[in-house]
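Hi V.,

Quick status before I head out on leave. The structure for the redesign project is tokenized and pasted below; the design run finished overnight.
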């Protein structure tokens, strides 16, 4: 009897390992199935010859909890980026060779996860999208019901950003700017300022410094007295723009001004991370390590701690022939 039980357990484990996530291979067919079943669709983008792709397959996608949640709550499809570059650009964008995104039945991008993710990070990605999709549907419905309500449109944009769908958030914030600019001042003007601030940041994060500058200038013109209260974020965005343009001293100045004027800013941890990167690339590693160490000490639960530690490791153990 014990032998039969052991054999049964081994067989069950082997079957689970063999089955794993029920990956589809045809994106079009998977989207049709998602529409028919009204389920969210996980699209995993990959490229041949990337070690991290193999690591995710062997570890992340083999994790029992990942397999269970993926199969119970989602449909899943793998797409080689080389075979569908236009789909990758539309949903994720950038130059990466590894990413995942979650689409709803209409093909709208609910959330994006660029790069490699271990099992805990991938589970968080899935659970956040599943739970947040209810809020997203409500925000969509509210914006659709009141198409001239700038506030409802702004809340929709913010919901996309919360879920990790930056391109869709940027699109909706641009709609906020267009709609709000046609209406009277007051609340509409405040939402327009918010739109300029967020679009400026999205542009800067994607290396579009000229577009970012236009929105920063529009924000400063519309809110010279910082009544909307986003100047700390604007200063960080300006620092990112200067960093893209290799103007390290100007970037450092903007970050130091932001931290001095707004010591309680919700983005102070990000300012410290940016300062560490900028100081390192300008050749001041001692000050860079000081800024990154302060981030870790003062913000022990910050979501960007891993990036700070990676930057410290990079500074202390630079690759051969490393230069900026």
């Amino acid at each position: 009897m014990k032998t039969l039980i052991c054999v049964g357990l081994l067989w069950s484990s082997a079957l689970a390992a063999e089955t794993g996530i029920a990956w589809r291979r045809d994106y079009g067919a998977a989207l049709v199935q998602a529409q028919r079943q009204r389920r969210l669709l996980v699209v995993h983008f990959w490229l041949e010859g990337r070690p991290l792709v193999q690591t995710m397959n062997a570890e992340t996608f083999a994790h029992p909890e990942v397999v269970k949640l993926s199969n119970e709550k989602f449909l899943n499809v793998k797409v080689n980026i080389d075979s569908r570059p236009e789909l990758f650009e539309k949903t994720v964008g950038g130059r990466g060779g590894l990413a995942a995104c979650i689409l709803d039945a209409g093909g709208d991008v609910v959330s994006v996860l660029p790069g490699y993710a271990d099992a805990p990070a991938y589970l968080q990605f899935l659970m956040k999208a599943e739970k947040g999709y209810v809020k997203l549907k409500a925000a969509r419905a509210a914006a659709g019901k009141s198409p001239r309500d700038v506030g409802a449109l702004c809340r929709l944009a913010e919901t996309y950003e919360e879920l990790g769908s930056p391109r869709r958030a940027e699109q909706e914030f641009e709609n906020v700017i267009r709609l709000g600019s046609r209406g009277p001042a007051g609340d509409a003007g405040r939402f327009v300022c918010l739109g300029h601030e967020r679009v400026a940041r999205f542009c800067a994060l994607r290396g579009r410094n000229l577009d970012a500058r236009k929105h920063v200038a529009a924000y400063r013109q519309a809110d010279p007295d910082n009544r909307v209260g986003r100047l700390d974020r604007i200063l960080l965005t300006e620092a990112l723009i200067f960093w893209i343009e290799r103007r390290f001293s100007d970037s450092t100045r903007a970050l130091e001004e932001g931290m001095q004027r707004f010591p309680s800013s919700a983005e102070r941890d990000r300012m410290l991370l940016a300062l560490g990167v900028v100081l390192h690339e300008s050749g001041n590693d001692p000050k860079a390590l000081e800024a990154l160490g302060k981030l870790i000490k003062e913000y022990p639960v910050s979501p960007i701690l891993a990036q700070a530690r990676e930057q410290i490791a990079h500074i202390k153990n630079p690759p051969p022939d490393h230069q900026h």
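Above is the designed sequence. The two ends are 67 Å apart (CA to CA).

G. will cover questions while I'm gone.

Best,
W.
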